[in-house]
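tool_call: predict_structure(chain=1)
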Amino acid sequence: MKPLRNTINQALNCLAGASFLAMVGLTCWQVFTRYLLKQPSSWSEELVSYLFAWMSLFGASLVTGERVHMNIPLLAQQASPCIQKALSVFAEVVACLFSAVILIFGGVQITNLAMGQMTSSLGIPIGIFYIILPLSGILNVIYTILNIVDILHGSLPRTEAVEAEKEAV
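tool_result:
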């Protein structure tokens, strides 16, 4: 399971980083064309907004895989280790169901619906940019399954964020 998790993490880090670099480059291009050439580039602004959504969803999948998403551990910390494990599995099941229903099922629906609409500046189907929704959902489902297996085997590696949180308490 660890090699699969590492491979997905590396791919998502590269994709999120590439999205960020492309956004920086396109924003610089937009500023250059707007203020120096006096001919604003409308397509770059539109593409930056879509890349921002992609980068955000790649990052959300990474957060799901590392189990550092927002939580309130107050009650769980007071419970026995067995209850803590059950609560952790329950949280992963809820995240998995959310990803399956909202991101995968809903994402496929909206992507298919949006394939008939064209972007205003780029002239390509909007659905192409919405493909990230089911893709992110699939990645989240994979991560939650890996997390559940690791929780049940007691081999889920603790992240630096979790370690820092424990040290602060």
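agent: The radius of gyration is 20 Å. Proceeding to next step.
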